[in-house]
């Protein structure tokens, strides 16, 4: 059974930090690029960050560049998103996405809520 399970969300103050995890099972994780997207209330889902299947190349939206860091540990079948210097506009549900490097088959997790508020 294919699963992507996000965790690590919660309430943080502006300027604070969180680390999100995305645990994968049921497929060959190392053959998939991984991305994070977020969706604020009433808004469309937007790209946040991505990391290549080998982990060498990373990509970020302009709104999070320099504050968020994406990484992966293929031995643990887990990807991470480190959120630093959080802002209220970072509030939303954060989703993990895995895309197969050849077939482009993709999976989504159920999301984890991040709320940034004082």
Task: Note down, in words, how this protein is organized.
With 118 residues, the chain is an all-beta fold. Helices cover 0% and strands 53% of the residues. The chain is built from no helices and eleven strands. The strands form two sheets. Strands 2, 4, 5, 6, 9, 10 and 11 form a seven-stranded mixed beta sheet that branches. The protein has a four-stranded antiparallel beta sheet with strand order 1-3-8-7, with no helix packed on it. The radius of gyration is 13 Å and the shape is globular. The termini are far apart.
Low-confidence stretches: none
Structural class: mainly beta
User: Please, what is the average pLDDT?
Assistant: 96
> What is the multimeric organization of the chains shown?
single chain
Q: Note the total helix count.
A: 0
Instruction: Please provide the ordered H/E string of secondary-structure elements.
Output: EEEEEEEEEEE
Helix content: under 10%
Distance between the termini: 40 Å
Largest sheet: 7 strands, mixed
Number of strands: 11
Overall radius of gyration = 13 Å
As a percent range, the share of strand residues is over 45%
What is the approximate shape? globular
Brief sketch in words of this structure:
This protein has 118 residues and is an all-beta fold.
Task: Give a topology summary.
Elements: E1 3-7, E2 10-12, E3 18-25, E4 32-39, E5 46-51, E6 58-60, E7 68-73, E8 78-83, E9 92-100, E10 106-108, E11 112-116
Parallel strand pairs: 2-11
Antiparallel strand pairs: 1-3, 3-8, 4-5, 4-9, 5-6, 7-8, 9-10, 9-11
Considering the chains and any ligands shown, give keywords for the structure.
mainly beta
């Amino acid at each position: 059974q294919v699963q992507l399970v996000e965790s690590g969300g919660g309430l943080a103050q502006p300027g604070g930090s969180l680390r999100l995890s995305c645990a994968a099972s049921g497929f060959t994780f190392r053959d998939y690029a991984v991305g994070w997207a977020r969706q604020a209330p009433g808004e469309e889902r937007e790209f946040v960050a991505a990391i290549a299947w080998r982990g060498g190349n990373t990509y970020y939206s302009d709104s999070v560049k320099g504050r968020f860091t994406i990484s992966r540990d293929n031995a643990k079948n887990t990807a991470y998103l480190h959120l630093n210097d959080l802002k209220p506009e970072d509030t939303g549900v954060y989703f993990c996405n895995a895309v197969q490097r050849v077939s482009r088959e993709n999976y989504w997790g159920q999301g984890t809520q991040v709320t940034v508020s004082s």
